[in-house]
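Appendix B. Raw example, untouched.
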Amino acid sequence: MTAFLCLNLNLFVFLTHAIEGIKIETGGEWENYTQIIFEPLWTIRRELVWISIFGYVFFIVLYAALYLYLRQND
């Protein structure tokens, strides 16, 4: 349960970082907030977005490994 909550928190942090990166680049117009979701990822040039994507994937792998380790030792 705790891992699930932390995973959702990481998703929220990832989306917040992505939106803030787009907001800084475009001047904060509302139409550009959803650009991160609807544009293909290879067209986004903000390094902050890539760092948060890799961080999010890292935490998914970490939680999956921890879950499998604890499940195996039960």
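End of appendix B.
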